[in-house]
Amino acid sequence: MTARLDPLAAPSLMKEWHRASLAIASSLDPALAELIEIRASQINGCANCINMHTTYARERGETEQRIYLLSAWREAPCYTDRERAALGWTEALTRISEGHTHEAAYEALEAHFTEEERVKLTLMVNIINGWNRIAVGFGGFVDPAAVKAANAKAANKAAAA
């Protein structure tokens, strides 16, 4: 796929978006964050983010089985109740335009996550949905290693500041 536009054409805004993304993602358990990012990206059909987050999930020790079964998480026995609650919430928010069926998802979320964690999860879902729209909208596809290097550089810069 050929990119239609480089989102870095608005560098200061993209730096802030990137910074917020890193802060939100780092506020959650990394394995759970990757599951959320992969599942939302599957729903949104974002090949870039599916590629990136499955790569990162593997690097963090996620199994091939759990990655492959993620699109059928409801029927797969390999996810915890806590993960299921997060995945249900991810789907409810990602598909919110399909109807307001998020009440049951919220009840499950409430049973497994604190108020602060629910806010963090909701922000994570919003961030990945935003990245999906940037990548799909502009036709972006990047190498996960390049993104990882850019993230490390940004984190080092932030730590030095």
UniProtKB/TrEMBL annotation:
- State the superkingdom: Bacteria
Q: Name one GO molecular function term.
A: peroxiredoxin activity
Q: Which SUPFAM superfamilies match?
A: AhpD-like
Report the residue ranges that make up the Carboxymuconolactone decarboxylase-like domain in this protein: 19-92
The record's annotation in NCBIfam families points to: ahpD_dom (TIGR00778)
PANTHER family referenced in this protein's UniProt entry, alphabetically: 4-CARBOXYMUCONOLACTONE DECARBOXYLASE FAMILY PROTEIN (AFU_ORTHOLOGUE AFUA_6G11590) (PTHR34846), CYTOPLASMIC PROTEIN (PTHR34846:SF10)
Protein name from the UniProt record: Carboxymuconolactone decarboxylase family protein
